[in-house]
Write a structure and sequence with these properties.
The protein has 406 residues and is of the alpha+beta class. Helices cover 51% and strands 17% of the residues. Strands 2-3-7-4-6-5 form a 6-stranded mixed barrel. The relative contact order is 0.19.
Length: 406
């Protein structure tokens, strides 16, 4: 059974009298909320799509776990580590490697980046070959040591891996250098550039991948070259369990890091960016919701001549205030539902037909703007929009009925 406030709010909301300025303003208010809600759905879903693609790219390169010494030194117990990892059936593949900051020079161009030396199992632990120019994993043969270069470094050094025949000069700081000695400050070696990869700027502008044999042949006095192990699991969702078990077996001197721990900044930044986008759009929604004040005030002025009759029939000032509060809430619910429908329709059309394309001059791997719809985002949008419109409706009804009409 409807009370007086509910009955009047529904009657006025669904009133089918002739079109006038008040009804037009109410319709515009509803559509303003609808468009704002649809924008929230589309923009957050697009943001989710880009976030998913970015994380997928990171996961294509970054293995489930990485093992290293706490002091970043080279391993002294490689055989023990191999035995532990080999016996664990949850581990699909693992690769020993070493990363070092070096100085690269190619003809008259130079660059400082990371030389990542890897063993023959490296390409079993990740999907980096999917993002290489030549789809070739060759890094070593009986004649040369080859380099797989990040696209950003290749561009800065002007290296064409398909036609280049000149080697890259790789300079290592000389550990034996002393002031006043005749030893060179740098030790110089050579790599042949034969392939390149393009994944993400963080890797494209930093990595040159080479075989572990490059270190072994050029630094024969060092008996140990590996300082990290990249570990790929048969079930990636079991990383926490495997991480804890390996940490116990390998002792306190070792660090076993998962993707989130290695890339905390990346995951935190994506969440912060999404939050900032949501706050900005919600602020715009608040501005759009101010139309409620004008719409409800105009409706109040139009119906004010009927208030005395309602009051004389037993209605109270509070009943009329609740009526306008409910009227605003009904308008907010209508705008939200229309906006959700419109926003989801746009998202699904983009998913099915790819209506909006990426810029033609973009080097991104996608042709269409990505979309990922999350239920938690839809729920958050609904709750936020309804809270904003309800608050504005409450504020307006309080202001309009602040003083008794009687």
């Amino acid at each position: 059974m409807l009370n007086l406030s509910q009955f009047l709010a529904l009657k006025w909301f669904f009133s089918s009298n002739k079109l006038n300025v008040v009804k037009l303003l109410s319709a515009l208010t509803i559509w303003a909320i609808a468009i704002g809600t649809a924008a929230l759905v589309v923009i957050l879903s697009t943001f989710n799509g880009f976030e998913e693609i970015a994380i997928h790219l990171y996961q294509s390169v970054e293995t489930d776990l990485i093992l290293k010494n706490k002091d970043d030194s080279k391993f002294t117990n490689i055989d023990e580590i191999k035995n532990i990892l080999t016996q664990d059936k949850r581990i699909k593949a693992f690769s020993f490697g070493h990363m070092q900051n070096v100085y690269f020079k190619y003809k008259d161009k130079d660059y400082v980046g990371n030389l990542k030396c890897v063993d023959s199992n490296y390409f079993k632990t990740n999907d980096i070959l999917k993002f290489t120019l030549l789809k070739d994993s060759l890094l070593n043969d009986e004649f040369y040591h080859y380099a797989m270069i990040g696209a950003g470094i290749a561009q800065k050094l002007l290296i064409n891996v398909e036609s280049g025949i000149d080697p890259i000069e790789v300079y290592f700081p000389n550990k034996t250098f002393k002031i006043g000695s005749k030893d060179a400050f740098f030790s110089k070696f050579f790599l042949m550039p034969t392939n390149s990869f393009s994944i993400y700027d963080e890797y494209d502008n930093a990595w040159v991948i080479a075989p572990m044999e490059f270190l072994e042949d050029n630094f024969p006095d060092d008996t140990i070259h590996a300082s990290m192990v990249e570990i790929s699991l048969t079930q990636s969702d079991k990383w926490a369990e495997v991480q804890n078990d390996l940490a116990k077996k390998l002792g306190e001197s070792k660090l076993v890091l998962n993707r989130h721990e290695r890339n905390q900044g990346i995951y935190q930044m994506t969440q912060i960016e999404k939050l900032l986008v949501f706050i900005i759009l919600l602020f715009i929604m608040i501005l759009l919701s101010l139309n409620f004040m004008g719409s409800l005030t105009m409706h109040y002025l139009e119906k004010s001549k009927n208030f005395l009759a309602l009051l004389s029939m037993g209605a109270t000032n509070r009943d009329l205030q609740k009526t306008y509060l409910l009227l605003g809430i009904f308008q907010g619910i209508s705008g939200t539902l229309i906006g959700l429908t419109l926003g989801l329709l746009i998202c699904y059309l983009q998913l099915w037909f790819g209506l909006v394309k990426m810029p033609t001059n973009s080097t991104f791997i996608l042709q269409n703007y990505p979309i990922k719809i999350l239920f938690k985002d839809i729920a958050l949008i609904c709750i936020s929009v309804l809270l904003v419109t309800s608050f504005v409706s409450f504020l307006t009804s309080r202001l309009n009925f602040r003083n008794s009409i009687a």
